[in-house]
Amino acid sequence: MGKYGKRRRAFLPLLLCSLLLTGWPAYGIESRAATADELEQSIKEKEEAISQAQEQKEEIQANISNIQAMVDELESTKDDLQAYVVQLDGNLAEIQSRISELKGLIEEKEAEIEETQQELEEAVAQEEEQYAAMKVRIQYSYERGSENLLEMLFSADSFGELLNRVGYIEQMNAYDQEQLAIYIKNRELVEACKTALEEEQEVLEEARAEVEEEEAGLETLIAEKEAQITSYQTDINNKEAAIAEYEADIAEQNSTIAALEAAAAEAKKQLEELNQPQVSYDGGMFQMPLASYKRVSSEYGYRVHPTLGVNKFHNGVDFAANSGTPIMAAYDGTVVGAAYNSSMGNYVMIDHGDGLYTIYMHASALYVSSGQTVSKGETIAAVGSTGRSTGPHLHFSVRLNGEYVNPWNYLS
Question: What is the mean pLDDT of residues 219-241?
Answer without folding.
Answer: 75
